[in-house]
From TrEMBL, chain A:
GO CC annotations on file: mediator complex
Protein name as catalogued: Mediator of RNA polymerase II transcription subunit 10
Subcellular location per the Swiss-Prot or TrEMBL entry: Nucleus
GO molecular function, one term: transcription coregulator activity
Gene label: LOC107220289
Automatic annotation (TrEMBL), chain B:
Subcellular compartments: Nucleus
GO cellular component: a single term: mediator complex
Family to which this protein belongs: Belongs to the Mediator complex subunit 19 family.
Full protein name: Mediator of RNA polymerase II transcription subunit 19
Amino acid sequence: MASPLENLETQLELFIENVRQIRIIVSDFQPQGQNVLNQKIQGLVNGLQEVDKLKSQVQDVHVPLEVFDYIDQGRNPQLYTKDCIEKALTKNEQVKGKIDAYRKFKANMLLELTCVFPNELAKYRAIRGDE
Amino acid sequence: MMMGDQFRSKVEQYSPKSSPRGARSPVVSRQDSTGTLKTTISLGKNPSIVHSGPFYLMKEPPGQSELTGATNLMAYYGLEHSYSKFSGKKLKEQLSSFLPNLPGIIDAPGHQDNSSLRSVIDKPPICGKDLLPLTSVQLAGFRLHPGPLPEQYRYVNQAPQRKHKNKHKKHKHKPGETLSGQEATTTDIGGPDPHEKKHKKQRKHDEEKERKKRKKEKKRKKQKHSPEHPGGLTPSQHSNT
């Protein structure tokens, strides 16, 4: 059985195809085409009903609002995914850099403090343990 | 006396009466050089008493979380494949490359033709009503006049078809043929480079044609004039002109 998203995609494609056919009929309208046009318009209503039925199946799908900006600008929404991944990677690297720097700083700090305040640092180590 | 005065002035300075924070105890730096403060009691979610010895304001270190930014989160969540997929190949910018089967021009900004998704969020449509098939009376509103659409609407409709046709024309294009204005304006699918190439090709073809024409004309002139005028141009002179 197809997934809810696939069902929705199929329904939307059928709807778009229906609209495309209406456009062709309307672009050079012939009197005998009225019945076909009426059927197609009813098809639009049916299509919307089908899409509406599938609404409940895709309630758990969350779409980031930023993707809409990409689509509205006529850009490929996969670029959003790409940008997100790249941003996450950059942030991950930055945070790792900070953590590493703090670790080094702490080690150096303890080293230097031990030289200057050996007794206090011994007490400190006794409280903190071997950190 | 001096000390007492100083103390009084300090107390007055930090008096709850004069404090802008009201009756709250003021923040005063207290020095504990004697080491008498042996324990630190921290309240909150996890109240704890830490034996801090000579260390003032010593707190429990924050609990170490299992997952931090120090780990490669891309590998942790198994997203390396997705990363290499998106970073490796160059993605096409246009929306039409993501939805190639969608008819119409979809690469234009949505706000131009009022088709932006953002507008659906900002101004949600009226919903909650049942979708019912149209009655015959309602369908009467869709009775159309025979004949083609007016010019301004036709242009919008035919644009995607033209795009499609041009793709075929592109392959059928014979050397020496000049491109019509329509083609030149709608073949911007592959970016600016193919455009330039086409123009260059066109120019070359035009130049070649002109050269051939000139040569033919000159030959004709030669044939016409040579018997009567022996002092015509020599071939070397021709090439110079």
